[in-house]
Write a structure and sequence with these properties.
The chain is 69% helix and 3% strand. The chain is an all-alpha fold. It folds into 3 domains: 27 residues; 52 residues; 82 residues, no CATH class.
Length: 214
């Protein structure tokens, strides 16, 4: 900035206009701010974790086209809006399933604790109740894998827990409601068997998550 001030003094002495001096000072100031002051894009508290900056730009573009479409009957604007809206939906689905894939089947070089943290962060994000009771959906073609595991059955001692697990596997129209104790047993089991049954476990979890979105 010292060089900028010196340059402004020299131009002022040579008869440069106030507008020229201001533009020079403004450009140098903005350049210094961008180079030396840390900054990042602020994220809304309840925003979807799989939204990327590019998708946000598409959403803003779609919203601008929607406002234009409301004010004008031009078919070109309407067509452009529909095309952009379809693009937004397509990119949202791709980003969502990529996010789920990174949770369920994380890369080998990733820390296992960070992947589990990301998984439970997603589960807490999707929760709608705070009483400790969480609705759980599981696809029929995968429930036999978890039900037939003796280690998982041994974790549930009370008859109430067995009845709830049985209800989970028999329910087709509505999701079963499992208590925190039963869910805790399921978490313990999946953590201990995750490495040996990674493929089936991943399919089971991804199928459960898919019923919550799209």
């Amino acid at each position: 900035m010292n060089e900028t001030f010196q340059r402004v003094k020299e131009l002022a002495a040579n008869g440069s206009s106030v507008e020229e001096l201001w533009l020079l000072f403004k450009s140098k100031l903005n350049q210094s701010v961008n180079n030396h002051i840390p900054h990042k894009t602020a994220k809304q508290k309840d925003s979807l974790p799989w939204l990327t900056p590019n998708i946000r730009k598409l959403i803003h573009r779609r919203d601008r086209l929607y406002k234009k479409k409301q004010k004008s009957a031009d078919p070109k604007i309407t067509s452009k809006f529909k095309e952009t809206n379809q693009m937004v939906q397509r990119e949202l689905r791709k980003a969502y399933w990529k996010y789920i894939e990174n949770i369920v089947t994380p890369k080998e070089e990733n820390n296992q604790y960070s992947s589990m943290k990301q998984f439970w962060t997603y589960i807490k994000y999707k929760r709608t109740e705070s009483s400790g009771v969480v609705p759980l959906r599981i696809c029929d073609q995968h429930v036999s894998f978890l039900a037939n595991q003796p280690d998982f059955a041994a974790l549930i001692h009370k008859s109430e827990g067995k009845q709830q697990v049985s209800q989970l596997f028999k329910t087709k129209t509505k999701p079963a409601i499992l208590t925190t104790k039963v869910l805790s047993s399921a978490r313990t089991f999946t953590k201990t068997t995750r490495k040996t049954v990674h493929g089936r476990y991943s399919t089971l979890i991804s199928c459960s998550l898919s019923s919550k979105f799209f």
